Amino acid sequence: MTVAVLGSGPVGQTAALLLARWGVPVVLVDEHEARDPVGSKAICQQRDTLDVWASLGAGCLAEEGLTWTIARTFHRARELFALELPDAGSALPPFVNLSQARVEAVLDELIARQPLIDVRRGHRITGLTQPGGVVVECETAGGPRRIEADYAIACTGAHGDAVRRAVGQHLEGVSFRDLFLICDIRADLPGWAAERRFHFDPPWNPGRQVLIHPCPGSQFRIDWQVPDDYDLAAEETGGALDRRIRAITGDRPYEVVWRSVYRFHTRLVRRMRVGRVLLAGDCAHLVAPFGARGLNSGVADAENAAWKLAWVLRGEAGEDLLESYHAERHAAAVENAAVTTATMDFLVPQDDERRARRLDVLTRAAADPAVHEQVDSGRLAEPFWYADSPLTTPDPARPCAGRPARGTLPPPGPGILLPDVTVASGRLRDLARQGFLALTTPGLTVTGVRSAEIPVGGVLGARPGEAWLVRPDAYVAAVLRVGDQRAHLVPGVRGVTRVVDDVGDRADAPE
């Protein structure tokens, strides 16, 4: 029983490693013969992404990445506010900046040591069919090749048109007219190493925005919003690029390490599961990078897909479980599209009325902290909450209030990712990632799944006589109580539907 992972960027690498960890053989297919090690590309890795990688043995990524904890926002020459990121009680930083090339190199090292992963490079995908399994047609230097698998995860990125066409999908949405110039520079900028800086309408890029991210090795990633007729070659030749950079660095020496020009998009496929093919990452959804919701969301796609495919292939769940991948991750993509579209509407207002509103908000924010929430420079990446998932049993005592305030986390409950903390039984998410887990309060026993005891209160806010059922991706599926007679917990997952009866019939609640 094999899964073909199509595309070997960080999302595909993560999917392959997660599947192998669950004991599933993988064929990892990529069209490139070798990596391109140049350029920062996707640099901003969120805490929960780092957590997934650490669970695979890549904890060094959190250590190597440059940790930043403050996001500063400026309007013209004035700082409006600084947002300090919450620590959430985790040993991992809220965000690190690290080049995509370094992430890929570390994950490649893990893949090379994993006997269940068969890497096929230099395979350009030309077609895909599903005749009771998945057949992937490829062109290679040695001629056509065919790869057969039981299922596939398509991580072929924005340019994965061949796969999308084969499953009847395309990226629907909009592209933004303005361009963005990206430069990686190496320079000594004292005091900037732990801060992300966002500038609205600075004097040195009038009418547009600039974002500055620190990176390891005294490097900085700078994104300038530029007109749609921007000519990078002309700027380099005429010296304007040097003047643009020196407006930020001053007279300090600097070196341009990489530069490129991008147009940003908000585009989604309509279906992220088509038969035996699951679409993930940029193959399924493109969003503007403000808030770092691209790669981080793709890694969440990979983890969601991997455990569900593993359960199906091991006979522990029916194939209907895979439909919940679409339900959960497409909802996450829609949320990310809404958040980033609102950001782009604020960054690039499309008419005079919206431009006037933005100027009013930025002007008032300088003196009124109550207005800060209206300043949108990109809501930072966060996990998506599966409160409405078919795999989540709602708890009336812990209703999900939806998207939490910016910079905050929701209280634990059904549909919410477990806090990344240590309890008496070990690191909570490590316990969860071994399979379904029941976290029980003292005096309560549960049969049918693994269990570990948690204190009443504590980080979960657990109450006497409760058992918290946790999925293999560390999301809470349900909170159970003695006598609870709800009909289901995780539909289609064998062995887990018994837990309600076990709690109701066999557990003794403490007085």
Automatic annotation (TrEMBL):
Cofactor(s) required, per the database record: FAD
UniProt entry keywords in alphabetical sequence: FAD, Flavoprotein
Tree of life domain: Bacteria
TM stretches of this protein: none
GO molecular function, one term: FAD binding
The FAD-binding domain, residue ranges: 2-334
InterPro entries attached to this UniProt entry: FAD-bd (IPR002938), FAD/NAD-bd_sf (IPR036188), RIFMO-like (IPR050641)
Matches recorded under Pfam families: FAD_binding_3 (PF01494)
PANTHER family in the cross-refs: BINDING MONOOXYGENASE, PUTATIVE (JCVI)-RELATED, TRK SYSTEM POTASSIUM UPTAKE PROTEIN
Protein name as it appears in the record: 3-(3-hydroxy-phenyl)propionate hydroxylase
Organism classification: Bacteria, Bacillati, Actinomycetota, Actinomycetes, Pseudonocardiales
